[in-house]
Amino acid sequence: MSTPGSSRREFLINSVSGLGAAWVAANYSGILEAEEFVQQAARSGQPAKLQFFTPDQAAEVEAMAAQIIPTDGTPGAREARVINFIDRALVTFEKDQQPAYAQGLKDLDGQTKQLFPSASKFSALTSEQQIQVLTAMEKTPFFNLVRTHTVTGFFASPVHGGNQNKVGWKLVNYDDSLNFKPPFGYYDAQLMKSR
Amino acid sequence: MRQFTPTTEVDFVIIGSGAAGGIMAKQLSIAGLKVVVLEQGGWGKYGHEQDYTKDEWLNDNPNDADRLMSDPSRQRNTFRRSDKDKATAGSHSYGCVVGGGTVTYGGSSWRHLPYEFNEATHVGTIAGTGMADWPITYEEIEPYYTKAEWELGIAGQRVNSPFVAPMSQDYPVPPMPLKASGALFKVAASKLGLTVVEGAVAIISKPYMGRSGCVNCGMCSGFGCHVKARSSTAVTMIPAAIKSGNCEVRTNSYVREISTDATGRVTGVTYFDANKREIFQRAKAVVLSANAGESARLLLMSKSARFPNGLANSSGIVGKYLMLGGGASASGLLEHPLNDYKGIVTGAGIVDYVPSDPKRGFYGGGRMTARGFDTPINYALRGLLPGAPRWGAGYKKALQEEATHKMTVSCFVTQLPLETNRVDLDPEVKDDWGLPAMRITSTSHPDDIKNMEFFRQKSIEVLEAAGAKRIFAPPVGDSRGGAHNRGTCRMGNDPKTSVVNKFHRAHDVPNLFIVDGSNLVTGGRNHPTMTIQALAFRAAENIVKAAKAGTLTRL
To answer: Which CATH architecture best describes the domain B1-152+220-323+417-444+483-555?
Structure first.
């Protein structure tokens, strides 16, 4: 990742390996804004500054995301920093979903307190309790929205804030080199051998 | 680039710059004719193709300047199954950029087979359908298939098979690498006694005519090609047209009417520019290449006292015999990784079921293609086999297990031309320019549905023979729109039953030519682009002759 003092452009080139310097140069202005966000996080070692959520809201959404793609033997939504992607998306591509989050977080709180009256908030519940709350909500538009955003953030290019260190791509064995030579997989390799 | 003023009478206005329009632009302009191409989309990354994004999220969320497809929320359209229903918002979308759909398509470039030009004779007319022979034969179009393949750059393997169209020359570049899904087709085919043919695709496997060979990046269908390996008309035809000094391409130009005079001759085209200002471009003749949906809509919008039912529509069949395209598919999980996300979308086909077989009890046929292509976001949101958990530890486990192990058999099948299936003008809904939205009415013939089911079953057989462990074949469904729409301005010899003659000239309007998928009389096996392009080369040759002979404005 970035080291203090390195230029932004250089940082971009390093972080989007596979696309090549020419691509970055050409798209520089377009992705600069998104990169700003990621770069900040990389420098500080802290989550990037939130643009839409309050820290409390971010904790709630991140807890949801972490149940949708949990951390087990491999990194989940939390390590991928999906929350950065969602926060950033809500002030750019997905601006029109802001009200859905505002209302959805209220509904999440309501569902949490309905099932666990003494709970302070969703993110404070045990994992099992969180799963219970989300199971009760899994058919709601809000849950599906957070699911779509979580999955998208987990698998979109890291330049958009999530999929940090390409953990999403690694999970599904996706190689982002964008330049391949056959054989590509097992069966074509077998066929080539037999010839 | 040469520029013309709207008040200058150019030889041709060409509406659309896609699969056919791009070819028309080149062929007419290099013959010395003055051409203005009106393209409703933008330039895309024309001339700096290396900037086409390979970022899935950006590609799915383009800003206006980067948009490559029409936007159904602006180019609004509606859909209904039958005249009894009220049409509701539709999702029909098509290529909308210089080069049209060829900028982003998978590139399948199969020729129609000889008998696909005379199926009414070959398999018989079918009551209640518009099954008809074409006014041209395979022998007449064959040289233009060859021309299209060599001028565009098609990769493939010439084979001698009753299931594949005969060719007078090889393809100009060798086939693309066989993918794992294609290798599995071979495994299955050897067990089932079937024939596998490597795909004919508009993607070059090695450098050709100054363009780079494909690097198998995998971000293919739906994305612009950053190495110019996809043989879109934007990299093969349009540059030569512009270089001729006789062609101006005007982007963001949304045509609303083809205008005519009192004698019934076309005088030019009225369009909205990027700022929605209305401009009239004068022309001696017009070539309409806006795709089957939009070409029909534009003719229907071009009403006048002389043409009260729309231009070139004395037959009343403009918009009718629409074929949206039918399909069937099945997916299965294999033991070992395919990594089919690398490379192009479609690598190989099983072709034994291309012909219609009366023993099946219905008309139909199709081509089976091997696929395993998936991009990460799309895979994770929509790519798992049904039944997988949608979130949590189980979801994550399924994502890991199925990743790169899935193969899909995707079939492209016949669809009968029916008079009731059509494009017309929605009586209520307007597009973003205030024009009547395209209304699609379509229900496939019962034989089409039986054919889809036949291919669904065959797909399962192939996956089983390939060794798939878990197989899922979604129920067959009828189409609602898409890139393969054909048939709305059919060609024919009889002005009462067709819109254009065998040289694409409108029967009713001597200086109007319609050249695109709308001309297809029957739909083939739902891989239309190569036939559209061969037709375009043939049409251009005849139009140039007419222009030179001074017979553009008279029949």
So the answer is: 3-Layer(bba) Sandwich (3.50)
